[in-house]
Amino acid sequence: MPGEVYEPAPLEPGTLRIIPIGGLGEIGRNMTMFEIDGKILIVDCGVLFPEEHQPGVDLILPDFSPIRDRLDDIVAVVLTHGHEDHIGAVPYLLKLRADIPLIGSGLTLALIEAKLKEHRIKPLVLTVKEGDMEAMGPFDLEFVAVNHSIPDALAVVIHSAAGTVMATGDFKMDQLPLDGRLTDLREFARLGKSGVDLFLVDSTNADVPGFTTPERTIGPVLDQVISKATGKVIVASFSSHVHRVQQVLDAAHANGRRVALLGRSMVRNMTIAADLGYLKVPENVLVDYKKAGNVPENQIVYMSTGSQGEPMAVLSRMVNRDHAVEVGEGDTVILASSLIPGNENAVYRIIDGLTKLGANVVHKGNAKVHVSGHAAAGELLYVYNILKPRNVLPVHGEWRHLWANAALAQQTGIPEANTFLGEDGTVFDMKAGEVKVVGQLDLGFVYVDGSTVGEITDADLKDRRILSEEGFISVIVVVDAATGKVITGPEIHARGFAEDETVFDSVKPKIVSALAEASQQGVRDQRALQQVVRRVVGRWVNVSFRRRPMIVPLVIEA
Asked: Which residues form a coiled coil (predicted)?
């Protein structure tokens, strides 16, 4: 359970310290710090996407405070795969120190290098593949193939003087993968036999019974939907979901349609995937978006981002009639991805908007157009039984996922005392294979808001929510500096109120009276007078309208 904040004792030689900086209690911001003998290894460095209660926020980063003053001690960042929730915060880390080596597979590094190019950062990279071993300071790293919804995902095994840790990254056990690349259970078994002291395991689907459906089942469904479509087809998916784009390309080709990629990230990522051979593009299928308008509507498929209802993404703009591709009667829209927790309302608004425009909307709720990229409970049980880890730390999930994963571990015989539930900032120490909780850091959210990073606070977001939900009132009063009496005003302006501003006539005398009383008591401080105005107006609005707007008083002395 979450505990109160307390600092860990200084790290002893030969002891491995593990701090999940992000990814515990949330779907995103995956980042874990490992430290031994003064050196630090980081596994993943991802972002979290904002929810509706975080207005105006573009991205949420991990809190780098545990490493901000120790950047020179970092030997490398290992990236398990190329999804944003695992690589998206790398540019912000490298802005603090640009020459931290990045370790990952070919596709993962290609995706992050393209992203870093936009930030004008050229990283130091080390490309690895399954079976490779690398020594980085006191860490001996070993890489294992795992299957996920993006090619080239890797689990990482960290050998140190304190014992062996295995981190799966995101994974599942699809037995019929599209690219033929299985989660390497033979390697899991070998590692289990030699001994894994701590297992950091993906929890995202731990509360889903059984086994995740194979990706291969999606292809025929997409083919069937596209074959029945009479107008244009728009497919929305994550911009890095290479497997899904491959299936769309194949289904379009089989039905005599061409495909145009929509969205800068989609074009960038699929160009990289095709150049590296991860995406096999049928001849004469892709058409440049600018020329797609020349293709008859019953012969085109648009492959788009925006499956999560992001306000600026392509589908949202189509619903708002703010996109060159217009959706109407006879068109088909396929949402080929899962819902990120917290985004459900936004996605359902998109579905309603598209349906209202006359489109046939096909989504996970009414057709098999998406399968998860994460291991369900049955697969996790298999992995625990094969690996037989000494200690388990469920990661990558919200609290219900972490709890479910811990329960699965205990069902396979791992003692409750060896099953650890932590949150971002929980500090674990391991020595000779023994793990214990030794501290709890106070880590928060770091918001990216336009060009500012970390400047926006939770208090600012609260103000934004108040502005959006309760409205805004400004009060301007000019008072005599010597006597404190009101010379001009109060002048009151409101935004977000249905009522006419004349309703404030009844509160103006109350403000004048309160300021007069304050001046009689010798109050002259401008801030104190502004507080008097805020209290009077706030109490009146609350009683009269049952609202709690943002009140901005301005008292000017003359």
From this structure: none
What pLDDT score does 427 carry? 96
* Residue 396: C-alpha distances to residues 151, 164, 354 (Å): 19, 20, 32
Give yes or no for residue 460 having a pLDDT over 70. Answer: no
pLDDT in tens, 492-551: 887 776 566 677 777 888 888 888 778 777 777 777 888 888 888 888 877 777 777 778
Q: At what angle do helices 264-275 and 106-118 cross, to 10 degrees?
A: 140
Instruction: Say what the pLDDT of residue 554 is.
Output: 84
Q: Look up residue 397 and give its DSSP letter.
A: B
Read off the pLDDT band of 99 (50, 70, 90): very high
Q: What pLDDT was estimated at residue 516?
A: 78
Distance (Å, rounded) from C-alpha 156 to C-alpha 125?
16
Give the contacts of 157 (CB within 8 A, at least 6 positions apart). 141, 142, 143, 144, 164, 165, 166, 191, 196
Give which of 402, 388, 314 is closest to 350, Cα–Cα.
314
Residue pair 446/60 in contact by the 8 Å Cβ criterion:
yes
Query: Would you tell me how many other CB atoms lie within 10 Å of the CB of residue 169?
Result: 26
Residues 404, 406: Cα–Cα separation, whole Å: 5
Task: Work out the angle at residue 314's Cα, subtended by the Cα atoms of residues 311 and 320, and round it to the nearest 5 degrees.
Answer: 65
Q: How does pLDDT run across 433-459, given as a tens digit for each residue?
A: 999 999 999 998 887 765 566 556 666
263: left (phi over 0), alpha (psi -120 to 50) or beta: left
Short-list 140, 149, 153, 158, CA closest to 184: 153
How many other CB atoms sit within 10 Å of the CB of residue 86?
A: 30
Q: Are 48 and 29 in contact (CB under 8 A)?
A: yes
Of residues 455, 397, 483, the one with CA closest to residue 24: 397
Which of 42, 41, 243 lies closest to 152, judged by CA? 243
Compute the distance between CA of residue 481 and CA of residue 213 in angstroms, rounded to an integer. 75
Alpha-carbon distance of 522 to 80, in angstroms, equals 65
Where do the DSSP E strands lie in 37-120?
A: 39-43, 59-61, 74-78, 102-104
At residue 466, the pLDDT reads 60
pLDDT tens readout for residues 47-82: 987 655 565 566 788 999 999 999 999 999 999 999
Positions at the binding site: 370-374
Higher pLDDT, 466 or 437: 437
Who's near 480: CB < 8 A, 6+ residues apart?
486, 487, 557, 558
Single pTM value for the model? 0.81
Give the pair of three-digit tokens for residue 343: 């985004």
Listed in sequence order, the DSSP H helices in 484-525 are: 508-520
| H-assigned helices in 255-310 | 264-275
**Using an 8 Å Cβ cutoff, are 318 and 351 in contact?**
no
| Numbered residues of the known binding site for substrate | 370-374
- Looking at residue 311, what is its pLDDT? 45
Instruction: Give, in degrees to the nearest 5, the angle at Cα 69 between 65 and 74.
Output: 95
